[in-house]
Design brief:
Layout lengths: L7 H11 L8 E3 H9 L7 E5 L5 H9 L4 E7 L2 E6 L2 E7 L9 E2 L5 E2 L2 H14 L3 H10 L5 H11 L7 H7 L20 H11 L6
Parallel strand pairs: 1-7, 2-5
Antiparallel strand pairs: 1-2, 3-4, 4-5, 6-7
């Protein structure tokens, strides 16, 4: 696991959160989780998800007992905080994992690359920011785009999502073009990323 991609504050936060019994129901996903697994870039936020509904106010109270923790916002099924200067989110996410999560050194579960890939495709279907395309591009170095596409369809089956719309989103870069490049460890050319998805997404079966 590429713990070297973390800042001192991120490591400290994972240690603090990993000591909380309440964190057992959550798993870490998003860019930071993927970077821990493949070491391709730096990522700022810690994004946690759970398939179990939780009492947001009670959970927030536990979080605010941690040192240097500030509330950002709370709504049904979501808690956003800043802990030691690091933005962190805790989200009820109803779509079950399709692969076994990985236990981190902090006793926090990490979503596998299979589940993160499916979530990245779903995120691009909502709004394709550049970092999601970049993350997905590095994922296809070890797992083909058709495989990731099938993972996405499996995880989000019977959800009412338009698979055709999501497929089209994989070659739409209107939002991504105005985004900056992520802070990379492994160099990558944005034009190459864009051209890859323009070509390869055409053959995916909705």
């Amino acid at each position: 696991m590429r713990t070297d991609i973390l800042t001192a504050e991120q490591k400290s936060n994972l240690e603090l959160l990993g000591a909380m019994p309440e964190i057992e129901k959550f798993y870490l996903a998003g860019g930071t989780a993927l970077a821990l697994l493949i070491g391709h870039r730096y990522s700022e936020d810690l994004d946690f998800f759970t398939e179990q509904k939780f009492d947001t106010q009670r959970f927030l109270k536990k979080l605010l007992a941690l040192p240097n923790c500030q509330k950002q916002s709370v709504s049904k099924g979501t808690v956003y905080i800043v802990l030691n200067g690091v933005r962190s989110s805790f989200i009820y996410y109803q779509y079950p994992l399709i692969d076994q999560p990985i236990l981190s050194p902090w006793q926090i579960q990490l979503a596998s690359v299979i589940d993160i890939g499916a979530m990245k495709v779903n995120a691009i279907g909502g709004r394709g920011v550049r970092r999601d395309f970049v993350d997905l591009y590095f994922l296809v170095q070890s797992r083909s785009l058709p495989q990731i596409w099938e993972d996405f369809k499996k995880r989000y089956a019977n959800t009412g999502l338009s698979m055709e719309h999501v497929k089209t989103s994989l070659s739409y870069f209107g939002d991504a073009e105005i985004d900056p490049m992520p802070n990379m460890i492994k160099p990558v050319n944005w034009k190459k990323v864009r051209e890859f998805f323009e070509k390869e997404s055409k053959d995916l079966a909705p």
